[in-house]
Amino acid sequence: MNPQTRFTERLRLHQTASGQTLADLQIPDQVAGTGVDFVQGWVTGIDADAQTVRIDDAYTLRYDNLIYALGSVADTETVPGVDEFAYTLNSAHDATLLADIWTDSPTAPSSWQAADSPASSPRPRSPSSIPNSTSCC
Ligand SMILES: Cc1cc2nc3c(=O)[nH]c(=O)nc-3n(C[C@H](O)[C@H](O)[C@H](O)COP(=O)(O)OP(=O)(O)OC[C@H]3O[C@@H](n4cnc5c(N)ncnc54)[C@H](O)[C@@H]3O)c2cc1C
Questions:
Q1: Is residue 107 domain-resident?
Q2: pLDDT at residue 76 tops 80
Q3: Residue 6 needs a FRET pair 20 to 30 A away by CA distance; which of 24, 43, 48, 91 works?
Q4: Residue 56 lies in a domain
Q5: pLDDT digits (tens, 9 = 90+) for 48-59
Q6: Domain range holding 86?
Q7: Is there a single domain that holds both residue 57 and residue 98?
């Protein structure tokens, strides 16, 4: 179960942020022939008593054993200014936003390019459509 078919190599997101292109690892291809079925969707609920997970608030899947491994995202809410000024490497999209800055992309705000520190102007915001799981470090 995953919201997108592409596997995000989180430990390589710094490479994405530095403008490198990572291998396009497709989860359905990775599990093909292993007996594992891939389901694309966002888990919106778990009923441990019924042993079901709710997918996209649309349907449920039953399980015998559930591996709950939703990862983590950086907490940008607790410390004032972080959400406004800091980048994260939570997702490939976030890493690409950072790459746009480092590579002096035309999409980067000019104030960033002229500043001594990238933190002197608010960063572009991630679209809220990027799903996140629990927050952490
Ligand atoms: C830049 C960076 C560098 C790193 N470098 C290293 C390193 O060198 N060595 C190391 O050991 N670790 C490193 N890490 C940490 C490592 O990437 C993580 O510890 C590891 O990815 C955690 O694996 P996970 O499967 O628990 O979570 P994740 O890899 O985050 O996977 C969780 C998955 O669950 C999905 N998901 C979340 N919520 C839902 C939902 N509601 N429904 C469906 N799917 C959902 C997400 O889309 C994601 O695909 C690094 C992390 C980062 C960000």
A1: yes
A2: yes
A3: 48
A4: yes
A5: 999 999 999 999
A6: 10-38+70-136
A7: no
- Taking CA atoms, 15 is separated from 44, 69, 92, 96, in Å, by 31, 23, 10, 10
> How remote is the CA of residue 57 from the centroid of ligand 1, in Å?
23
Is the beta carbon of 79 within 6 A of some atom in ligand 1?
no
Task: List the one residue out of 85, 112, 86, 102 whose CA is nearest residue 20.
Answer: 102
5 lines ligand 1 (CB under 6 A): no
User: What is the share, in percent, of the chain residues with pLDDT greater than 90?
Assistant: 67
- Ligand 1 pocket residue status of 136, Cβ below 6 Å: no
Ligand 1 within 6 A of CB of 69: yes
46, β-bridge pairs: 53
For residue 136, list its beta bridge partners: 74
Report the domain count for the chain: 2
